[in-house]
Each structure stands twice: as C-alpha cells, then as structure tokens.
C-alpha cells in the first residue's frame, strides 16, 4: 500500500493467472486482506476510486489473468476531528443529504493553516450521520467552495448517496449557477469559455489556463447588468475545476472583483483610469473578498429521483456592492 498524499491509500494488485475470470466486486469483496465488503467495493467503484488497467472500473466487469487493479482507499484520520460549535444555515435536510448555505470566510474542510474551525468540524458537531467516503477529515463533503466564496454546498449522509452525487457531478447532471461581479466590461453579453485548467508551475496554490496539460473546463455566462466599471453576471459551471470561474475570467482580462489571487483587487485598482479610481476603491472596501456566490443547485434527488432545486439569496456584502453601483450610475 502507498500513501497518496493526505486523503487516500493506494492498493495495487494483479489478478492471478491461475484463476478463472471473476467479477471485480465479487473478487475484491472476497479478498480478506482488503477488508472490504462487496457493498463498500461497489461504492468505491461508482465514485471512480477503482481502475482496471488504468481505466475507470465497472462493478460488474470481469477480471482476467494479469489485470492490474488499483484501489484508492480513503485514509482514516489518526486523531478524531474536533467539533466546532458554528451555526449552520441549513437550507434542506432529509435522510440522505444536507444543503448548507456557506458564508464567505468559512473553510470547507481542514487543511494547511486551518484545522478546526471549518464547515467539516461544524458538520460533525451537528450530526453523526455523515458519509466517510472522502475520509474522516472530510465527513460528508461531496464538493467544495473556496473559503471566500459564499453559497450552496452539498453534504452526503451515507457513502452510497455520496458516491451517486459524485457520479452525477462527473456526468454533469448537477446544475450549479453562480452570481459574479467581474472587473471591466466583457465584449459579449453571453458566451461560453472552454479553456483547460491546470496548476500553476510557479505557485502551487494557484491555477492557470493550461492548454498543454490542463483538464477540460467549461464556464457559461450571461450578463445580468452592466454597471459603471463592472459587469454583474450569472455563471453556470459545466465542469468543477479548482478556481474555475476565477481563472477563466482572469484569463479574459476581467477578474472577479475583490479577488487578490487573480488580479481583481490592487492590480485592477491600479489599472483603472485615475478619475474612476475612488469609485473602484470604494467598491473594494465594500467587498473584502471575491464577489462570487454559489446561488443555485438543481438536480434529480439521488434516491427519490425527484427534481430538486434550491436558491440562496445574495449575501449582505454582495447586495451592498450592487446597491453602490446602482447609486453611482
């Protein structure tokens, strides 16, 4: 077994040459050293954590002599996570999932520089019914939002729901709509940005448009209103790459307002015509973080199949920013 960073343990084996072909889930479930039930194996396969000969596995596929099987097992935390008494804005909850309206400034799960006051710590304080599929440091966490992005986030209560939601995300069956304010004015009132995204070579905490080795990323946008100095947009994600919206609009020369990482703060302020600089500075004072809000989630419920939709109203700082631009029009 190999340690894959902090979140997973890698199990690799080759199917014995002296065995007849056998279903993957059945064989793994019968391998005592792995200590995986057939149902647990199915969850891992459906969440994309099992490959056969380098390709994503199917739970019903047959293994043949020499097949190389790789399984990513979520690591168990060495110490129990601390509980954080943080009030959660629960938009929806049933036996399978929770929808949380996350405020800006709240980190989703423990990581470098933030180990206890996170959404994950608050969730284990709220309920003991959370999926363990992503490891004990990320209980129930199906996807994430940046610390300074506000809005809706999905939490799974059990591993099967978690695996199904992850699959739905990968197959683009979950609609995610954001509200954003970007610096300057786009040429078009609506459009689609299709540019691959990868990690920056120079700064590992940043992402970049990477036409060489990036992963496919698609961002669709529609103009809500054009204000003095900025555009207010509705943004729809078709993929979920790290910092996707922020990277795409920064690449176009229109970073998300207030985003210091990708040029939406001091760099933008310096670029504004001097007569307009006080207006820009005031906007940045009102919005101390990136003007990005995860506003809508819509999908077919993973258990009931019923179409569900939730919408989070714009938070106070976002509304104040738009009100300010209305006043200076």
Please explain how this structure is put together:
The structure is a single chain. The chain is elongated. It has 3 domains: 2-74, RNA-binding S4 domain (Structural Genomics Hypothetical 15.5 Kd Protein In mrcA-pckA Intergenic Region, Chain A, Roll), CATH 3.10.290.10; 79-171, 2-Layer Sandwich (Pseudouridine synthase); 177-294 and 319-328, Pseudouridine synthase, CATH 3.30.2350. It has 329 residues and is of the alpha+beta class. Strand 8 and strand 9 (97-102) form a beta hairpin. The protein has helices at residues 24-30, 38-46, 119-126, 159-170, 244-251, 266-271, 277-286, 316-328; strands at 2-4, 8-14, 22-23, 50-52, 55-56, 62-63, 68-74, 90-93, 97-102, 150-156, 175-183, 190-194, 197-199, 207-209, 218-226, 230-237, 292-300, 307-311. Helix content is 22%, strand content 29%. Strands 8, 9, 10, 11, 12, 15, 16, 17 and 18 form a 9-stranded mixed β-sheet that branches. It has a 5-stranded antiparallel β-sheet with strand order 1-2-7-4-5. It has a two-stranded antiparallel ribbon with strand order 3-6. The protein is built from 8 helices and 18 strands. Helix 2 (38-46) runs parallel beside helix 4.
Tally of DSSP β-strands? 18
Distance between the termini: 62 Å
The level-1 CATH class of the largest domain: Alpha Beta
- The total of helices stands at 8
Counting structural domains, the number is 3
Arithmetic mean pLDDT: 89
Structural class: alpha+beta
Q: Provide the CATH topology of the largest domain.
A: Pseudouridine synthase
Poorly predicted residue ranges: 1-6
Helix content: 10-25%
- What percent strand? 25-35%
**Shape summary:** elongated
Order of helices and strands: EEEHHEEEEEEHEHEEEEEEHHHEEH
CATH architecture of the largest domain: 2-Layer Sandwich
Main sheet makeup: 9 strands, mixed
CATH superfamily of the largest domain: Pseudouridine synthase
Radius of gyration: 22 Å
